[in-house]
Structure formats: structure tokens, C-alpha cells
Amino acid sequence: MADNTPKQHNLDDLLAVMARLRDPDTGCPWDLKQSFETIAPYTIEEAYEVADAIARDDTDGLKDELGDLLLQVVYHAQMASEDERFVFADVVGAITRKMIRRHPHVFEDASRREEFMATDLWDHIKTQEKAERGEDVHAKSVLADVPVGLPGLTRAVKLQKRAAKVGFDWPNLVPVLAKVDEELAELKEVLAADCTTLSEARAAEEFGDLLFVMASVARHLGVDPEAALRGANAKFVRRFESIEAALARQGRDPSDATLEEMDALWDAAKRDENKG
User: DSSP assignment, residue 257?
Assistant: First the structure.
């Protein structure tokens, strides 16, 4: 009787698949056209899909999405190996050494556990690493290496955390909320201006300031603003789909309903959620 159990592949198999896809003679034409630059957006997208699976508590989906994200690492390593820059083993070696080096309280001296939790030991070790590479850690801003490509709210929080480490921060949430009121008032002031003088650039600037200070609110609350917004997005989708379902039972769709009708259905969906 034939054994239909799927073969259990390992990392070496995945590396071999990636090398085959990039083979100049027999590989996939699409894969052969790719570069670090063209693959980078997929890498970012796959990281978001991992986060989405986690948010949906989808264990099977998480397994698949982690595989997709792993493929991105393998993809970049394969392209680097073709240019003789580095290979996948170098990536594994580098991160393994880094994790050991940055966790001395685990791999060297257990007595440093409290120091790790109570101080900036991780950042101190990072600074040492940069100095060992010959980088002048005092020559550039404390904000210099916060990646520009991060999502805006995430980068705002990281920038604020860096500034806070050198004392540039509000002491608690009270003045932060006051700043929210100030920024909101400034946005309202711009929007209240005569239509002929309203500057889209100025409105965008004030809106950006408001978002930036809201990121600070999230930071002081210990909330991930991106995760909070994803939750709000999911809530919107859930409640709007409830509106669509309610209208569908009447043989209608949202384009046939008034705003007042949809608002009432929204409130009903909200009440149902709160009761649940």
C-alpha cells in the first residue's frame, strides 16, 4: 500500500529549491528577473501577513505566513550568494552570535538578569558593537539609525523612545494629552480658514503633528499603535459587514440605504458586540 504521507522537507531542501528557481539556465524567468530592490516590498508584505495571522489567532495561517517570511530571507541570501557577498549560513551565524552576545545574562552570567531588565544593557551592547566596527557612535544623532522605511506610527514611537533615553520626553501622560488638544485645535484652525486660503500642505502638516502626538499617547500607555489601529480596522470591517448582512436580509445593499439607516445598523452591531 502506497504511503501518501507528505515528505518532511528541511531547510536544506528550501535552499535547494531557491537555488533551482534562480538557476540561470533552468530557473523560473520571473524569479531570475528579481533583485534585492524588487523583492524588498514582498519581504515587508510577508511580515505584515505574519502579524495579521497572529491578530486573527490563526495558527495554521501563521505557520504558512512564517514559511513565506522565511522564503524572503532565503531569497535575499540566494541573491547575495550569487554576487559572492554572503550565503545563508552567514546570515544564521551572524544572528546567532548577535543573540548570544546581547544576552550575557543567559549565556555568560545569570547574575546579570536583573541588570538586563532594569537597564539599557541591550542598547549598551549595541553601542559597543558599533564602536568595535569602527563607527563613531558620538558623531551622529541618536535618531540616525531608526529605519526610514518603517510604518509611520511605528517609526514615530521608535524616534520618541530614542529621544526619551536622553531626557527629551514628557514625564507622564497628562501633558501628552494636553498636547493632543493643542494639535487638534491647530488642525481645526487650519480647517476653519477661508476655503480660498486653505493650504492642503498646511492641513497635512497639522494632521501629521496630531498623529505624531497620538503615537506618543500610545507609547505612554504601553500600546502598540499599529496593533491598535489594526484592531480598529478589524472592528470597522466586522461592523460594516454586519450592516451589509442586515441590508441583504432585506434584499438591499448599502448603496440603497441612507446614512441614517446604516448608522442605526452600526449602533445595533455595536450593541450586539458589547452584549457578547
Answer: S
Residue 1 has pLDDT above 60, yes or no: no
For residue 206, which amino acid is it? E
Q: How far is 78 from 80, CA to CA, in rounded Å?
A: 5
**Under 8 Å between Cβ of 164 and 216:** no
Residue 210 CA neighbour count, 13 Å, CB half = 15
Contacts with 143 (C-beta within 8 Å, 6 or more apart), sequence order: 159, 162, 163
- The Cα–Cα gap between 218 and 235 comes to 19
The owner of cell 520626553 is: 169
| CATH number of the domain located at residue range(s) 11-101 in this protein | 1.10.287.1080
Q: Which of 164, 210, 206 is nearest to 189 (CA)?
A: 206
Helices H / strands E in the chain, number of each: 13, 0
**Which uninterrupted H or E stretch holds 198?**
none
pLDDT tens by residue, 69-122: 999 999 999 999 999 999 999 999 999 999 998 898 899 888 888 887 777 777
Task: State the Cα–Cα distance between residues 31 and 18, nearest whole angstrom.
Answer: 9
Dihedrals phi, psi of 195, to nearest 5 degrees: -55, -30
Residue 21 contacts residue 31 (beta carbons within 8 Å) = yes
Helices 225-248 & 200-221, crossing angle to 10 degrees?
A: 110
Asked if residues 274 and 268 have their Cβ atoms less than 8 Å apart, the reply is no
Per-residue pLDDT tens for 234-265? 899 999 999 999 999 999 999 999 999 999 99
Residue extent(s) of CATH 1.10.287.1080 domains in the chain: 11-101
The three-point CA angle 16-18-24 to 5° equals: 100
